[in-house]
Amino acid sequence: MKAILVSMGSFVAAAGLIVACSPETMSATTARGDYMEFCVDCHGPEGKGDGVLAQVLTPRPADLTQISDRNDGKFSQSYVMSHIDGYDTPQSGTAMPPFGDLLEGKTVLYDSGDGIATPTPERLVALMEYIASLQDG
């Protein structure tokens, strides 16, 4: 009986490791790390626009927790990703610094709602999903 309990304990521990290393968990961990590396100084740890550099920036960093509220309750994934990667900002100056690392590496197929799956940097999608998780309400 003791051998069976030890074996079951080993199985449960191994299953926990598999879950901890699942792509979803790794993606969320990577996205949070990317947020802390690229976004926290301006937008703050909670995304409220109160990072350590916020006081000296013009325009002030956006409160990322209010994206949905500013858009009639809808979180526009495409808008957020295009804002992060600089696609929607004018060439002559931008409030957002370039994030080349987020645009490199593995891509995933992302459908923005138009039915066309477009190869999109995996880390960019993960960061957008992390920002979506910060929404109030």
Automatic annotation (TrEMBL):
Keywords: Heme, Iron, Metal-binding. PROSITE patterns: PROKAR_LIPOPROTEIN (PS51257). Residues 35-134 form the Cytochrome c domain. One of its GO terms (molecular function) is heme binding. InterPro entries: Cyt_c-like_dom, Cyt_c-like_dom_sf. This is Cytochrome c. It comes from Paracoccus seriniphilus.
